[in-house]
Write a structure and sequence with these properties.
alpha+beta, 12 strands, Cytochrome p450, 3-stranded antiparallel β-sheet
């Protein structure tokens, strides 16, 4: 990809529209993507990029247009064999497909197999466990010295939750984080965990062997209320191929990890960057209820989702051809001032705070959205109980990715 010239004498508004390529992971590592999408929403909201490292693609940047694509399953496909859900084509095609990489009706049966674990009754049953672990993590943090919030809090809490959902051996729980990071890493990232599809598949096959052993054991046992047992025993999933088990395990691990983990980190950063909002929260802890979805919107941990056009169609006056790659940029839709008032502001009292795209929409909306909100709400309830004060001790280290808007390290001190 030819680097975009944004030197001192050139602004983003000077760049020819046809040269804008928002697939560059560096834009998200440096947190410099906002103005590119501002311009696209204003001048070319369904934007064609003819050349990128991933091939040609359409960018859908406005909230309402993203919703049109999300909800039109007859026109826009998530199928793995057509490319899947990321701007980079799924290298395995239909040899390894999770239910998020399927269209109806196959998608529906597999999603229903795991949905009961995040049903309202079970969320209530898990609340005490989540709270107890959150209390332990917060009470174990050092006072008066710098530590990494991502490692000590965000990763630890989400990994313990994943271990519970999978009924996974607790002592090995950090494997779940490792597998999630391997599955989403960009090969060109500094310090990338893997550097090729072959290396990634080798690690995921090791994951498949570990989870497969648990699968086989639970398939023979009594019905269990964990994700592995549900997949092993439900009629829609019990006969899935080993590669599809790998794909669904990755989906559930990443889905149960990345949004919550990165919102725990990005949310703390947002509050510390906006002390008036932190003061308002301390004055009225009930604001947690609107703050949590605002944090999720503001972080937008999933940068994009991709679809493939199943037929010739038109969107916002643009002619999209069958087979075209159509990318919905959630980080743009969540900052669309035609849909969200003053979207660049972090406002924990925002009216209609749930009006965001961070969980997607339609049949592929995140199945664990309420669990993510519950974990975040409990975290902040417990922080407020302890009257904790924080100081950010250095800039966040953001990951190099155009799919996950993540924070790798966040140095913090409890004052």
């Amino acid at each position: 990809m030819t680097a975009i010239d944004t030197s001192a004498n050139t602004t983003i508004d000077d760049i020819p529209l046809d040269k804008i390529d928002v697939s560059d992971p560096a834009l998200y590592q440096t947190d410099d993507f906002y103005d590119y999408f501002r311009r696209l929403r204003k001048e070319d909201p369904v934007h064609y990029c003819a050349e990128s490292p991933y091939g040609a693609y359409w960018s859908v940047t406005r909230y309402d247009d993203i919703m049109r694509v999300e909800l039109d399953h007859a026109t826009y496909s998530s199928a793995a064999h057509l490319g899947g859900i990321a701007i980079r084509d799924n290298p395995f095609g239909d040899r390894m497909a999770s239910f998020i990489g399927m269209d109806q009706p196959d998608h529906t049966g597999q999603r229903k197999a795991v949905a009961p674990i995040v049903a309202p009754n079970n969320l209530r049953n898990m609340e005490a466990t989540i709270r107890s672990r959150t209390e332990d993590v917060l009470d174990s943090l050092p006072r008066g010295e710098t530590f990494d919030w991502v490692d000590k809090v965000s990763i630890e809490l989400t990994t313990m939750m994943l271990a519970t959902l999978f009924d996974f051996p607790f002592e090995d729980r950090r494997l779940l984080t490792y597998w999630s990071d391997v599955a989403t890493t960009d090969f060109d990232a500094p310090g990338a965990l893997v550097k090729s599809d072959e290396e990634r598949l080798d690690v995921l096959k090791e994951m498949g062997q570990y989870i497969g052993a648990l699968w086989r054991e639970r398939a023979k046992g009594e019905p269990g209320f964990d994700l592995i047992s549900m997949l092993a025993q439900d009629a829609a999933t019990k006969n899935m191929k080993p590669m599809d088990l790998i794909a669904n395990s990755v989906l559930l691990i990443v889905g149960g990890n990345d949004t919550t983990r990165n919102t725990m980190s990005g949310g703390l950063l947002a509050l510390c960057d906006n002390p008036d909002q932190f003061a308002a929260l301390r004055a009225d802890p009930e604001l947690i209820k609107t703050m949590v979805p605002e944090m999720i919107r503001y972080q937008s941990a999933i940068i994009h989702m991709r679809r493939t056009a199943l037929k010739d169609t038109e969107l916002a006056g643009k002619s999209i051809r069958k087979g075209d790659r159509v990318v919905m940029w959630y980080v743009s839709g969540n900052w669309d001032d035609e849909a969200i008032e003053a979207p660049t502001e972090f406002n924990i009292q925002r009216p209609k705070s749930r009006r965001h795209l961070a969980f997607g929409a339609g049949i592929h909306r995140c199945v664990g959205d309420r669990l993510a909100e519950q974990q975040l709400q409990i975290l902040w309830e417990e922080i407020l109980k302890r009257e904790m004060r924080f100081e950010i001790m250095g800039p966040p280290e953001r990951i190099y990715s155009n799919f996950i808007r993540g924070i790798k390290h966040l140095p913090v001190r409890i004052t």
